Amino acid sequence: MKRPTIADIAREAGVSKGAVSYALNGQPGVSDQTRRRIIAIAHRLGFQASTAARALAGARAKVIGLTLHRPPRTLGVEPFFMELISGLEAELSTQSYALLLQMVPDHHEEIAYYRRWWTERRVDGMLVCDLRTHDARIRALKELAIPAAVIGPPGELPSVWSDDAVSMVEAVEYLASLGHTRIARIAGLPDLAHTAIRTESFLKACPQGIVVATDYTAESGARATRRVLNTHDRPTALIYDNDIMAVAGVAVAYEAGLSIPDDLSIIAWDDSPICSLVHPALTALTRDIGAYGTHAARLLLDLINGAEARSRSEQPAHLVFRDSTGRCRVTP
Amino acid sequence: MKRPTIADIAREAGVSKGAVSYALNGQPGVSDQTRRRIIAIAHRLGFQASTAARALAGARAKVIGLTLHRPPRTLGVEPFFMELISGLEAELSTQSYALLLQMVPDHHEEIAYYRRWWTERRVDGMLVCDLRTHDARIRALKELAIPAAVIGPPGELPSVWSDDAVSMVEAVEYLASLGHTRIARIAGLPDLAHTAIRTESFLKACPQGIVVATDYTAESGARATRRVLNTHDRPTALIYDNDIMAVAGVAVAYEAGLSIPDDLSIIAWDDSPICSLVHPALTALTRDIGAYGTHAARLLLDLINGAEARSRSEQPAHLVFRDSTGRCRVTP
DNA sequence: CCCAGGCGCTGAACCGTGTAAGTATGAGGA
DNA sequence: TCCTCATACTTACACGGTTCAGCGCCTGGG
Q: What domains can be seen in chain A, in order of their start residue?
């Protein structure tokens, strides 16, 4: 039981292979009547074009690529990726695109994959994650003229992201409304583009704020928390760049004899089941990560199909109020 | 700057394309001297064979496929997949294999992908996850004669898994050694093969034990916990099938006025950062999920290369002792 | 000396699709 | 009537590998 090819369809329809190709790809060159007949036959035979042959002939590979730079230390951001991939697939599968995934040790290798996959026509476009402030990958993609979309802050390439500055202001203003004036930000990896944006926004909304960099792990989150809690004018509220660190921070606060939210308020950026499960349940900045994926996929596919594709701004992360934030009880 | 093809190498070396193909693939048909010369030239030109052309000509596609059946409700098992994929890639990338990933709504669609990818030579083999007790995919894979490896309990296809029965016995015996006699198991999805195995082992080690089925979500875990804690002879220890449910269970226990571990001991199956971050830190059955991926990939690649490939037994999950388990204080 | 047979290589076909170039057909205008 | 021109196709080749049949050459045995 071999799969049908365009040759089979051509024989059945009494036309040439070329005509079949034109008909199935919506190209001019066949009459509407013939086209309909060919499409009907293709459908009846359950025809699916071979992507290998397609790619070889220089057409669409029907695959988009995603390379992830994942040092073992950033395990904490994992839920983000599964949600993202899930959202990506939701869009890709409707257009029968597949996702080619590759873990890479560094940016250098990542760019090598871009080049290899692209020259081999193995992918029609690339998605870029974990955008850095000065990201070598962007230049590589532009040089190679690979259709690409960024899942991250807007820049030279079309992107899908939300305005983190707005969310940061929301968080700071909320804390301010509770009477907090001494706020610290436990930030993520400092060379990630969105980390810089959040920090800038934080310092603008709260000029006297403290910022400590981490690598997203629970350990570094705990260490950063200890550091800021040991200062003279210890902050009364903390904003963490992920949920893992926020939970670790809660433990450190308890250890220091502080009660939450009475002595210390805590906000986590990115909500996850953990935030609502721990005690106290964490107030968090939540956002629809799946939507990032879906929209990034749509953006990239538009780009591949030659359509106009502009960066897209997602709904900013917004606060979900739980039990880890409360009125400031500390008098200055 | 086009990528080099075997034709370029052939011209450079003054031989035919066929000779180059033989030389690069380690096939007989060229002298050792010529082979070395050709390989040297290929290396100098930075030659990388086009997988599309390869696949079209009926050879290896250098891709293995993974389809994930992911109803939105089983979000809780996500960390498993990222670790697994990470482990897979570790092995695949050394052999320059890529991973083709597809989310599917159901088994029916999943099998359709098997058929499509295989007849199209888009993949050289498939990995199977989330094995069910009677899994239609296994038959489909055998019928299509697709090289495949299962990440799950051993069965008809070569598999990579650990003996969950052993781990379950370890957990039950540990609880028994602490004096617990009334133990409940908050199980995962009942039609998953490993769930059945764990339940069977649990009931064998603890015949008077209670088993409650869930769908892995925090909500169903909480509900199951409430149910077993409301029984007449309420259990003094609970074993959860994932970490999310265990954490949710802790909250339910607190809500019921129970203290952990004094009134109730809790064990989570599968360790994750959450387990060590919550209060009290959870005693957990930990295992190296990345190793599952690495070994499954190796198994599948062996299979694809025609080597003998037998199922592989991983190190069973073993207990990590934390603060959620303690001596039974309840007198019968 | 002759012939079998293995070695090392060439040439060509083939995989399934896309597409440029060429060809028949018919309509329409001068 | 003849020429143009668009339409609707066909033909042929390209894409980059794999593979099979075949061919010359060398070696060794009878």
A: 6-49 (1.10.260.40), 63-162+289-315 (3.40.50.2300), 164-286 (3.40.50.2300)
